[in-house]
Amino acid sequence: MNEHHQNAYGLMxxxxxxxxxxxxxxxxxxxxxxxxSLAAYNPPLRVAEEFAxxxxxxxxxxxxxxxxxxxxxxxxxxxxxxxxxxxxxxxAHDLVIQAxxxxxxxxxxxxxxxxxxxxxxxxxxxxxHPPVWIPGGGSLETWEWTAKRDYVYCYLSYYGYKRxxxxxxxxxxxxxxxxxxxxxxxxxxxxxxxxxASDAEAERLYAPHVDYFYKKCLHVWEGFAEAxxxxxxxxxxxxxxxxxxxxxxxxRQALTWGKYLEQGYVIAGSPDTVRQELxxxxxxxxxxxxxxxxxxxxMPKDLTLLNTELFGREVLPHLRDIWAGYKDRWWPSGxxxx
Length: 338
Hints:
Radius of gyration: 20 Å
Mean pLDDT: 93
Low-confidence stretches: none
CATH superfamily of the largest domain: Luciferase-like domain
Number of strands: 9
Helix content: 40-55%
Structural class: alpha/beta
Shape: globular
Distance between the termini: 19 Å
Number of helices: 13
Largest sheet: 7 strands, parallel
Order of helices and strands: HEHEHHEEEHEHEHHHHHEHEH
Number of domains: 2
């Protein structure tokens, strides 16, 4: 569940509402809210309170995601100055964590938020707090900030794992430079996946919907892609580019089913084909938390359910033990393991 505002790109302005509904319809599944865009909340204590309630409602199954937020959401839809966005975000993060972990009533006097009394009720069920995952789009500073706080870094990319490798290589280099352990569960990655009885059947069933997604669902006007000041100078110098906007759209318009597969945008085919390529994806990117997108573009409900069933039965069991020698310290304590 994620958060987007005032656009057709994402129809979920309040992921916490969806998580609350799912907390009552599920009993073992982790509720991964990726997440609440902290800088948009005034005061950010609202995030601390609602996430704490969700953790209690779900029996300790919450993953708390804290995105900076896209430029189109934060700067254009909500009017936050891009020059202050990250500073607001970091201050809000500190307030939320303190609200969850400090045992006594305290005052918070930040640059953007002042609260005379911080006294959270209820507290999260998980202690000291729910696991924190940080979704990102490739900003270099996010890698280091995440590692220093022992959070999970989740690279949410629609370009697929082959292009994503450069970003994840950079993340692991940053991890090494900081002297932090290289546990694969520190990292997550989003990949589009389509499973069918055969490779040819996968193309027949899924190609129109994948094409619809990449060529119709990601239209974002160039002026809304990134406001000046949204990216840091260091990240711009590293060549990181937005995933939406005119340049990205021109690249996608030339894609065919064969190119989607060849370039790794989508992993699709028979269960055996998908198993092999997803194993390569997981190992080459060194990711412990694989997030798969199984409903894509115009895909109808029956086909989505088929894709989900085939993935769960024929693919997922073969991937579970890839990182068997590592402990996942970032999984919610009340959630099952499948």
